[in-house]
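Morning, I've got a small favour to ask if you have a moment. I've dropped the whole record in just underneath, so have a look.
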Amino acid sequence: MNVSLLLAAMLLLPAAPSAPASVLVVVGPAAGAEEVALLEAAVKAVGDASVEVARDPGTALRPEALERVQAVVLTAGAAAGLPAGSGEALAGWIEKGGGVVEIGCALEAAGGAVLEESSVPGPLGITLHDLRHPAALPVRPYWKVADGVGCVKGLDPARVRVLLSVDMWSVPAGKRRPVHVPVAWTRSPGKGRVLHTSLGAEPAAWKDALLREHLTGAVAWVLRRKGGESAPNPEVSAEMQKLAERAAAPAGEPRKPKG
């Protein structure tokens, strides 16, 4: 057979399907069946992902276990039970190309941020900053959520790309805080990808279809199934800080400055 014809025929053959990405969803021991099912369904909605659920975070996030997966979804309940040093092991795996979605928790993977005990109570509004990111697409461009969100401290705006923030004007006047409260952000340490979201810390929140779409987009991004920027946008944090200060001002300053 003519070699040229053989090569041409081979090029016309359909490409072999790629193996589905392996995603590890790590929940706490107290996670209920409904919460786990909703999380699992949101991850599977990526379309080409196999999902494994683990309830023992200490074992699931050992270096040898992480080598078997491409992405980890880490819930607040799981993070609370992690032994010392787990954050460092996870960070090392991310640097080599792993992807992590953090839900309501902040380890080293979140860029040095630490969760505060305080939170902004719901219901509240969420402002979108990146119209193109897959984790922000469900919002378009404003999202009202029933639950509150946890606050963070130590997050360096120069190291992260903020996708979503609390609209402090949507918070009741007596409960507003004069600080920017980011809700979701990304960064790309080394060869890896990290997306943090403060939404979904409460199990009942996953009944919200928009929240599940938010998670689906986040997982698709850390798996590189969809594009999206991770370049820092400190100007967003600066602008949202100004808005929060005006919203929390006792005199009730207007949303926009005069002049």
